[in-house]
TrEMBL record:
GO terms for molecular function: DNA binding; DNA-binding transcription factor activity. This is Putative D-xylose utilization operon transcriptional repressor. PROSITE patterns: HTH_GNTR. It holds the Pfam family FCD.
């Protein structure tokens, strides 16, 4: 019985989290146990356990009166996340070239870009694939602490990325630009490759996300 309850709690957690990440439950949406129980067809116990986990992760917040909402995405959140991305990925991208691993990483990144192209009609899946592409870039550091920083911010990166697309970033164009970036990497052209990464993922993404505010 305990295992079944734990399993239901896990199911509730995954379902609610996915709906938050794919913006079915958008930032600022009010949530109640009754609403979630009804939508999931579950009792309060597993739903309550799922809510607690999501509150711990910061995706659901409660105010003084204990009313629950999906965490808002603030301008400060957007600026901090994209600043973090630019600092880490900028250094990582340069390291890929200075260590002579640009051809190797061109194939590794291309694999992620292929996944992005395959998910072009599914915004959530495309953003998940895009985030995997960014994690591939920082993998050059072989640094578990940096990996954890990215993993701890995955939820926000995925939600903010969807905001970028909904407010200006065009998926087909971004996919084509990333293909060009891969080709420049394969040729060893750091400047042209990095210019594409900067334009599509350090500037446009942040500006587009902010426009959605």
């Amino acid at each position: 019985m305990a295992n079944k309850s734990a399993s239901l709690a896990d199911q509730a957690y995954e379902n609610i989290k996915t709906n938050i990440l794919n913006l079915t439950y958008p930032p600022g949406m009010a949530l109640t146990e009754a609403l979630l129980c009804s939508r999931l067809g579950m009792s309060r116990s597993p739903v309550r356990a799922a809510i607690h986990r999501l509150q711990t992760e910061g995706l659901i917040v409660s105010d003084y009166y204990k009313s629950m909402t999906v965490k808002e995405i603030t301008d400060k959140d957007i600026n901090e996340i994209y600043q973090l991305r630019e600092l880490l990925e900028g250094a990582a991208f340069k390291l890929i070239f200075t260590t002579g691993r640009n051809e190797e990483y061109s194939y590794r990144i291309e694999e992620k870009v292929v996944r992005m192209c395959a998910a072009a009609n599914d915004l959530y899946e495309w953003e998940v694939a895009d985030t995997a592409m960014h994690m591939e870039i920082v993998s050059i550091f072989d640094n578990d602490r940096i990996n954890r920083i990215y993993e701890n911010n995955l939820s926000e990166l995925i939600r903010m990325g969807q905001y970028s697309v909904k407010n200006g970033m065009h998926i087909p164009k971004t996919n084509e630009n990333l293909k060009k970036m891969v080709r420049h990497m394969r040729k060893g052209d750091y400047e042209k490759a990095y210019a594409i990464l900067t334009a599509d993922h350090f500037g446009t993404g942040k500006d587009s996300a902010l426009k959605g505010r």
